[in-house]
Specification:
homodimer; alpha/beta; 7-stranded mixed β-sheet; two-stranded antiparallel sheet; elongated; transcription (chains A, B); DNA binding (chains A, B); WH-like_DNA-bd_sf (chains A, B); WH_DNA-bd_sf (chains A, B)
Chain lengths: 297, 297
Amino acid sequence: MLDYPALAAVAAVVREGSFERAAAALAITPSAVSQRVRGLEERLGAILIVRGQPCEATELGRSLCAHLDQVRLLEHDLAPALGSTAAGAGDRLTLPVAVNADSLATWFPAAAAAFGRVADVSLDLTLDDEAHTANRLRAGEVMAAVTAEREPVQGCRTLSLGALRYAACASPEFVARYFARGITPQALEQAPCLRFDRRDFLQARWARAALGVERVGPVHWVPSTHGFLDMTLVGLGWGMHPCAMVEDRIAAGHLIELAPAHRVDVPLYWTVTRLHAAALNQLTQAVSTAAGEVLGR
Amino acid sequence: MLDYPALAAVAAVVREGSFERAAAALAITPSAVSQRVRGLEERLGAILIVRGQPCEATELGRSLCAHLDQVRLLEHDLAPALGSTAAGAGDRLTLPVAVNADSLATWFPAAAAAFGRVADVSLDLTLDDEAHTANRLRAGEVMAAVTAEREPVQGCRTLSLGALRYAACASPEFVARYFARGITPQALEQAPCLRFDRRDFLQARWARAALGVERVGPVHWVPSTHGFLDMTLVGLGWGMHPCAMVEDRIAAGHLIELAPAHRVDVPLYWTVTRLHAAALNQLTQAVSTAAGEVLGR
């Protein structure tokens, strides 16, 4: 068997970023943490942690931490049978999950809250830059992910969650300034638009659907869902927003939808480790329910 | 002199992530982009771009792109004297700026909008994980940064922007569940709290100031300012929020402040490349004004 107390020390150092903070989290001394980590490294004949600011796991270290996560998840299900009460802080189960920014800004909090009410488990959310989700799952950095790309991942199953619907919006002042003569291809080339990041092609997709052109105007880059909305409200540019975030603003006249007939759908998926563990099932259930209330299927 | 058209091709590939998208942005063919990049690499005897998904700059490539940004910035100031009108899309000036998440969620949009009204320049915002800001400035990845750490950076000047003030908040249901008998150290060890990331120690700082203890309860990790607020509103945990974001919610009774006498201040700084260029000065002015209206000094 692996030396699990030592492995727990490795995982704590990786999670906290330093030996000192890992020691505080485990309520042992830093030198005890250091001994456990070094002992395991010597027995395995391999380095598990790259010492630095912050400390990071090597590839083998990551695999072992992922294994520890799975063992903890399975062990968690035994707790009622063992008659144990709530575990100590160092032992509390934490589920690492990757979420895309627009989900976190719309339907995901309801899923997290529902999960929090039924499970005594911490969530460790990572904002997912969609292209890397599959790799994060493969490397064992997360146990589940909300992703905009349907990519099969070994050892995981994938559920369709429906689609997040986007609307092209701008502030009334912005529309008056750039689209006074209508939303034409020429006007679109002059009007500054917002893009989330290099992988965000929603603006071009909308322009093609609504106007049959791909060329949009100068770009401001704003890699935050709410920042994106705030920048649109203050008139820096037009942008594509999840309908769930802007419907109230459109109704109140704070935003104008540029072409209501042309909304853009982005399908979302839930990819989750195949492991028969209550916490994973509870989270999948909460995600599926919350997504169902917001996303069209 | 450097071959600037070739350097512009390198910068476009790095910015867009691929030769095809760079070609579209520059309105030339992909093979023309490829020829320019390879030609410059051959003359310099060094690789500038690591071909991949996405394409990324080598260290030398990054230095050259940073140099190109500076040249463009200075050139931009000549435009009125040269009588040129708005430059084409490929030539439009873009300012790369790093911003911390809580600033983007509070006072920064007003700064960006004010800048957008006076300057015909695109902003390329990067969400800053504060510890790396200084390195990003040194590597030339950004020309300015809002940071929570005052660190001198060679070739840059640093302005104090005041402090962002944080309040410890939770939903009324959460307070009823965990703090019915008051906010005691014992209650705090049981109540789930939210942390933004591994470098976020605001919760512990507040606990020390308000209760004289450092130990807080189980942690959920939520690396998004608005996600953090949404998770607090739905009752997943208590957390530290910028006062500017929660004052309305506290007044409306959606959130309860845990210890109004113990707010926590985080000083913010604006670190900007020392370069006498109008766009940088305009941005610094807009940042200083917008920060002044929200941050206490």
